[in-house]
Amino acid sequence: MVDASVAVKWVVEEEHSAEAVRLLQCETRHAPTHWQAEAASVLWSKVFKRELSAEDAGERMRVLLRAPVLTADIADLLPRAFRIAVAQSVTIYDSLYVALAENLTVPLVTADRKLIQRLAGALPASQLLWVGDIGPTT
Q1: pLDDT tens-digit profile of 77-94?
Q2: How far apart are CA 56 and CA 51, in angstroms?
Q3: Contact 129, 24 (CB under 8 A)
Q4: Angle subtended at Cα 52 by Cα 33 and Cα 30, rounded to the nearest 5 degrees
Q5: Residue closest to 77 by CA, chosen among 98, 51, 56, 105
Q6: CA–CA separation, 57 vs 108, rounded Å?
Q7: pLDDT digits (tens, 9 = 90+) for 47-69
Q8: Neighbours of 131 (CB within 10 A)
Q9: 19, 47, 62, 93 — which has fewest CB within 10 A?
Q10: Consecutive sets of 10 residues in the chain, 138 residues long: mean pLDDT of each?
Q11: Domain-wise residue ranges, the chain
């Protein structure tokens, strides 16, 4: 289970991109349906920060849209996600990933340090994984 912060690392060379790419070797990757919009938003911000050209970012977005990720509809996740968001002071967008990880009983892999800090103690350590901790056999 991956969030957009990890997926972007599949197409943009950043710190921990190699670890994120290792996740593509897993049998399946899951995310709520909004992950693509979030990832595209990150690419958009890189254009405005002049880190990528609009053409390059557009091509990377097209690659991401073909990424092998099984998506889950957010409608069923929203009630639990809302409770998580309120209790842990995280966005609904982030809490949707957490709710899906709970439903699937798999860890959420993220590159969002603030999310990890906000969820620390609220989730079992096995439910939340920092992308930098991905090893060759994770």
Answers
A1: 999 999 999 999 999 999
A2: 10
A3: no
A4: 20
A5: 98
A6: 26
A7: 999 999 999 999 999 999 999 99
A8: 25
A9: 62
A10: 95 94 90 97 97 98 96 96 95 96 94 91 83 74
A11: 4-133
